[in-house]
Write a structure and sequence with these properties.
Elements (H helix, E strand, L loop, with lengths): L6 E6 L5 E5 H16 L4 E6 L8 E6 L5 E4 L10 H10 L6 E2 L14
Parallel strand pairs: 3-6
Antiparallel strand pairs: 1-2, 1-5, 3-4
Organism: Microbacterium nanhaiense
Protein name: DUF7882 domain-containing protein
InterPro entries: DUF7882
């Protein structure tokens, strides 16, 4: 799925812990993460490393005591995709946790969304 060309940053933990991710997916993650943390619900967030970072995968334990910041490159609102939002929300209740789609780390060509 093509998400759009703007890439935001998901900051977690220390100031150096960050993840560059598509603004569209980041907006959906923000909604799911803030909803879960408001309910005091912890979960895992995983992704396969972008090719430029070398092979492997990462998993975070997301907990209300962990600092997070969502920086969006686009200053406009993101149109919410209810299927993506529902899918991420449902994943958050599984033992696998939320898995960020691999294509969320690649900006789409301009004009593709």
């Amino acid at each position: 799925m093509a998400y759009g060309a703007t890439m935001g940053t998901f900051h977690y933990g220390s100031a150096t812990d960050l993840l560059r991710i598509n603004d569209h997916v980041l907006a959906h993650l923000k909604l799911v993460i803030t909803t879960k943390l408001r309910r005091d619900e912890s979960f895992t967030l995983s992704w396969v490393k972008p090719e430029a970072d070398g092979p492997g995968r990462c998993t975070l334990w997301v907990h209300p005591s962990m600092p997070f910041r969502f920086d969006f490159d686009d200053d406009g609102p993101v149109q919410i995709d209810s299927a993506l939002l529902d899918g991420l929300g449902a994943e958050s209740y599984t033992s696998r946790g939320i898995v960020i789609p691999a294509d969320a780390f690649e900006p789409s060509p301009v004009g593709v969304s």
